[in-house]
């Protein structure tokens, strides 16, 4: 039996969140994920609604996928890092979906993402053969990032953001910037952060990311400005840390 399957099964058995349910529609569950920009309560809302829907129909593929994706988003630690125990909790829901419908392209695309961070790019890439949806484009972009190929990262992540649901666009554009920045493409990263802000001026993370870039080049005043722009939109630890670092390092006024 597959080792990853066994671990995900154990993680799922230990997970208590599936006991929490909340009435709602599949559209509401999906929209919580579409609107996610770092707010964990949206992930929990999606899971609660999806668990409710599964009490009505245990083979609801869209609900199963929502739960899997909520875990994937919750596993994100920043950069290209994901928490494996949380990924394992989500992976079992992908396997449940594929046991119902092995041809579900959203499930296969998400499976590629899970396996990318659980086992590596070689195990993930073949799952995307002949799939052309936005999730598959995103998965191809992240595989390219692990392989250190910024050209392919940009190609696939731009395609993903062009074809994803409207409310996800700013999130994916910002993530394009993050991924390119990690691969040393700072100028391109800044372009995508600014594009994300143009799409959604209330999105906190691209301001924070711009602040990090300013901090790298020693421009503490601009970095602090961006940190506060981020914090005015959403309180989160990383932006607070950036604010404290750059505030204390600014030149004293004489």
Query: Taking strands numbered 1, 2, ... along the chain, how are they ordered across the largest sheet?
Result: 1-2
The string of secondary-structure elements, in order, is HHHHEEHHHHHHHHHH
The level of helicity is over 70%
Strand content: under 5%
Give me some keywords for this one.
single chain, 71% helix, mainly alpha, 254 residues
Description:
This protein is 71% helix and 2% strand. With 254 residues, it is an all-alpha fold. The N and C termini lie far apart (69 Å).
List the helices and strands and how they pair.
Elements: H1 3-14, H2 26-34, H3 40-56, H4 61-74, E1 76-78, E2 81-82, H5 84-100, H6 105-118, H7 121-125, H8 134-146, H9 150-163, H10 169-182, H11 186-199, H12 204-216, H13 220-231, H14 237-249
Antiparallel strand pairs: 1-2
Helix pairs in contact: 1-5, 2-3, 2-4, 3-4, 4-5, 4-6, 5-6, 6-8, 8-9, 9-10, 10-11, 11-12, 12-13, 12-14, 13-14
